Amino acid sequence: MATADYMLEVKDLHATIGEESAITQILKGINLSVKAGEVHAIMGPNGSGKSTLSKVIAGHPDYTVSKGVVLLNGENILELEADERSRKGIFLGFQYPVEIPGVNNAEFLRMAYNQKRKAEGKEEADPLDFEEILDARMKILDMDDRYKERAINEGFSGGEKKRNEILQMAILDPALAILDETDSGLDVDALKIVAGGINRLRGPGKAIVLITHYQRLLDYVQPDVVHVLSGGKIVQTGDKELALEVEKKGYDWLVK
Amino acid sequence: MDNAANKAPASAVPTNASVGAPTVANGDDYKFGFTTDVEMEKFGKGLNEDVIRAISKKKNEPAFLLDFRLKAYKKWLTMKEPNWAHVKYPAIDYQDIVYFAQPKQKPTLTGLDEVDPEILKTFEKLGIPLDEQKRLSNVAVDAVFDSVSVATTHKKKLMEHGVIFCSISEAVHEYPELIEEYLGSVVPVADNFYAALNSAVFTDGSFVYIPPDTKCPMELSTYFRINTEESGQFERTLIVCAENSYVSYLEGCTAPKFDTNQLHAAVVELVTLDNAEIKYSTVQNWYSGDPKTGKGGIYNFVTKRGKCLGRKSKISWTQVETGSAITWKYPSCILVGEESVGEFYSVALTNGYMQADTGTKMIHLGKNTKSSIISKGIASDHSSNAYRGLVRIGKNATGSRNFSQCDSMLVGGESSAHTFPYIETGNAASQVEHEASTSKISEDQLFYFQSRGVPREEAISMIVNGFCKDVFNQLPMEFAVEAQKLLALKLENSVG
Q1: Cβ-defined contact of A86 to B469 (cutoff 8 Å)
Q2: pLDDT recorded at residue B19
Q3: Which of B347, B407, B442, B450 to mutate to test the interface with A (most CBs of A within 10 A)?
Q4: A21, A168, A193, B423 — which has fewest CB within 10 A?
């Protein structure tokens, strides 16, 4: 595991959605290499394949990989179920977190946390122990106790859902976090809090991939590398200056 | 018995009914599917008047009960099997059923040491220890094995509070006046085809009487176990709760796996007097047949009804139905007393080739009566799951209210869910509300759980349990935990 140069390596990744007569090719040969300790930003116009890339890496069953590999610490993960990938350290923060009526948020968080503990061969946390862990994280994200009692994402505002995603990330403490437009729909104060949560994860053993439309989040979370994705391919890679340039000039000059 | 000798079916020759090969059906995880090797005394197959007389004689019953049985039998002969339910099954041959089977032993037991140790072991295996040291401290249990009650625990302690809890056979002898007054007072002998059959041939079941001003000091529970392959189970339960009293009653059931179908046609009657309350909970897990082929399983054709006779009395049904090949069951409340309350909380889970047609009837007769219905149906694989409910508000039941909520959830596969609500209001000064929904566990919900490290099966179980929470909250604690586990077990292999 330590021998791999990169935490995440995506090589010539092609992916489709749909079956038989209605197959759409979305990813058309993505190459992406992320080292531990790095933060990468992926920008790009609507429909360029940003969300698809994040879901394919996390293992969404709707997508079919037609070519290429995804390596996590040198191991090909494409054959693994989404939950196995998660237990290996991948976290996906959703652009549109789904609502799950009737399932208590705090219980769900404890279940997820314990799945990870089990995978690491550690003892599961009982409700009381977990509550301490949860309370500490919630305080950092300025979330009140109501979150614990509510059903997962049910009736949450857009901002509350995003904050809940970051809370889950903070609890699972993943090696690789892929955050899909976590900044969208947040006001400035919420954005600062969410950015604070992301920066807290940042560290030598961690990698973060931020998918975003806007440069705004990148003011608070400084990326090491910036990519522009368009038409299912990465068309440009640079440092954070690239994000500023995109902000100023839009995407057209890169796409052509 | 002798006079019945020339009627072939009623020969009552004791046969050893132990079944050699324990589990016939395979390919599922029904852990209660074993049979117990115990010597049985049973009648030959078939039903006629002599069989009924023989049952009554065997049980040494008073004349009124034999009359009750014969009246029911005569009615039954004129009745037709109901065919309106949303279920399909081949015609039942009622002459191919054994109507009386009991473990061979002395007619009256003085202590548990006289119960066949194999039967004690069976109940222990099912998690229902009956012996003094191990029995559940806060729950009194009546254990019914095939047609006969084999043991009732904590009787003495209950008696100190005046609470009667015994088998119905025993009650017939000890408390004949209570039986004569209440038996058939809620479900008349000719109420429906199965109830009439039960009234004619019932062999045992539980009887509970809570005297006035008494809160029953512990939970009461009956555990039903079908063991013999060819026998039908026709138990009869009667619970009477007198003025200002309260009882919580639990019912559990399992059966071995057989290739053939067994008929279970029970009748349960509840009566509450002024200010009394009965809370009746069921976790039903009869063998449901082979999930791959649909072969075998119990036909669960049950009539359960409560009568709120007294003012401000209350009857609450909670059921978790996870077993049986076919379920035909509508625990109901007749709200006679003014301001009386009826409740029905139900979770019905079907998988494999199971068919369930279940729901309730709330009949409002008294003024200002209230009822609420919460039904959660979950269907997976090839199963069919129907809610059928009637809310009837009588002409004089002014100021009455009903609220119904019926939700269905489909879990992959070729399953179907149906809702048949019937509402009849006889006066304008009452209020009836009905809400219904159908949902499907979406791929995105499952992916959300999986992306957090939760395996698919556990995700489904958690979503389904969340869906059923409003009903599980009504169950006594231990039962709620058991019900959740049962659901998880049932869903394990149902994931498409």
Answers
A1: no
A2: 26
A3: B450
A4: A21
Q: How many helices (H) and strands (E) does chain A have?
A: 10, 12
Mean pLDDT of A47-69: 94
Q: Does the pLDDT value for residue B29 go beyond 70?
A: no
Domain boundaries, chain B: 2-491
Span B48-69, pLDDT tens digits: 999 999 889 988 999 999 999 9
In a 3-state reduction of DSSP, which class is residue A52? helix
The nearest CA of chain A is from the CA of B350 a distance in Å of: 20
Identify which of B450, B462, B463 has the shortest CB distance to residue A82: B450
At B370, the amino acid letter reads K
Beta bridge partners of B434: B404
- How does the average pLDDT of chain B come out, rounded? 82
Say which residues have a Cβ less than 8 Å from residue B243's Cβ, sequence separation at least 6. B212, B213, B273, B274, B275, B276, B310
Domain boundaries, chain A: 8-255
Residues in A 79-118 with any Cβ partner in B closer than 8 A: 81-83, 85-87, 91-92, 94, 97-98, 100-104, 107-108, 111-112, 115-116
With tokens 């009637």, the residue in question is B390
> Is A141 strand, coil or helix?
coil
Q: Which two tokens stand for residue B16?
A: 């050893």
Least reliable range by pLDDT among A223-232, B31-40, B203-212, B238-247 = B31-40
ipTM surpasses cut 0.90:
yes
